[in-house]
Amino acid sequence: MKSLDSQPLESIPFLSVKQVASYLQLNEKKIYELANNGTIPATKVTGKWMFPRELINRWMLDSSHSGLLSDRLIIAGSDDPLLYRIVSSFAADVGSKVLVSYSPTGTRLGLDLLQSHRVDVCGVHWGPDNESRMRHPALLQHYSQHKNWVLIRAFKREQGLIVSPPLLKYSTKPEAFFDQQFRWVKRQKGAGAQRFLEEVLYSYGMKTDMLNCETEALSEREAAAAIAMDLADIAPGARSVANEFGQGFISLGWEAFDFAIPRNIWFRHLFQDLIKYLKSMPGQHMAEELTGYDFGGVGELIWGEE
């Protein structure tokens, strides 16, 4: 029986550091550096780095000539109903020629997936609009791949609290709902909406564990659905989400929603076509139906210019 070392590298599904160094004609020190930085597809098994050969091949293709895997656009990150509708319509238009998909994961998990090359674009919202040009780059700089990324403005949206409509007769002030009789929806750790809620509560000297949080939602739309199903009374979220589910809304300001994207993917026709679709009359009509959007600066490079 042949040992792994004697087999052709093309036939081995998982390569060691030594094997992938030989496969890519790089030294082992460079392979360790790429793995530790999250640049190359790799996983640790009992403390040793292993490299899926199929993903290594895809990574090499996608790293050359601004990316040859230009027939897909996988979007993750923050949840937004307008982006969902835009992507769905855009995917229907391009048909089976390319793969375009959107999976709301929350901001931080989306960036983790972007860092590990499992998605192409991450939606980000991490604080009020007037601080976004500082906060969003600062958040990206926690990731070793940030030097290869840029931030592109998608839109601005109105942010606040999604509430059950009858509660608006009770009050339109957030502090009125801190009492234990009101059921709050909290978001998962790393979600931009949860960060927003924590900052709102902090301004009142409160923390999330002081609220009656009976439900945790993995997206803003899931949070709004919980209220519509009478599983909760109030949740952080955007006006557009509240309107989509026929819920009440208490406005607390505006926030920027940006795309974090590798520089080589930014130049792809598929992403540029998505931005054009967002700017188009059908895209603007969708935004007007949902309400709570500002299209000033769509497609603008916010950060990452060389």
Description of the molecule:
The chain contains twelve helices and 13 strands. The chain is an alpha+beta fold and about 300 residues long. Helix 7 (about 190-205) links the parallel strand 8 and strand 9 (about 210-215). Helix 1 packs across helix 2 and helix 4 (about 80-95) packs antiparallel against helix 12 (about 280-290). The radius of gyration is 22 Å and the shape is globular. The mean pLDDT is about 90. Pfam families: HTH_17, PBP_like. This is DNA-binding protein.
Q: What is the count of structural domains?
A: 3
CATH-level-4 superfamily name of the largest domain: Periplasmic binding protein-like II
Beta fraction: 25-35%
Quickly give the structural class.
alpha+beta
Report the principal-axis shape: globular
* Structural Rg: 22 Å
Give the CATH architecture of the largest domain: 3-Layer(aba) Sandwich
Number of strands: 13
Largest sheet: 8 strands, mixed
Number of helices: 12
What is the CA–CA distance across the termini? 52 Å
* Residue-averaged pLDDT: 91
The parts where pLDDT drops under 50 for at least 5 residues are: none
Entry summary:
By secondary structure, the chain is α+β, with helices and mostly antiparallel strands.
Key terms for this structure?
D-Maltodextrin-Binding Protein, domain 2; 3 domains; PBP_domain; 306 residues; Multidrug-efflux Transporter Regulator, Chain: A, Domain 2; 25% strand; DNA-binding protein; eight-stranded mixed β-sheet; SinI_DNA-bd; alpha+beta; globular
